[in-house]
C-alpha cells in the first residue's frame, strides 16, 4: 500500500510505503531514489506491516520494489503503474503528481 501526503507550501510529497507482514520476517525497499540500495523497512506490530516513509520531489515518477525474507522480490499491488526491468520482472512506479 502507498499513501501520499501533499504539502501546500513545499515542493515535496511525503510517501509512506507499507507492506503486509503476513509470512514476512524482514523487508527492505529497493528504489531509484535510494540509489537502488537495500533499505530496511520498519516493522509495525500494531498494524502487522512493514513501513518506510520518505519525502520525494513533486511531479516525479520513482521506481521501487520490496525484497522480503532475504530471498523474494515483491511488488506493491497499489503502485501507480509498472515498468519492465532488466531482470525480466516489473518494477513498481510511484507518481508524485497531485491529481
UniProtKB/TrEMBL annotation:
SUPFAM superfamilies reported for this sequence: E set domains
Protein name: Isoamylase early set domain-containing protein
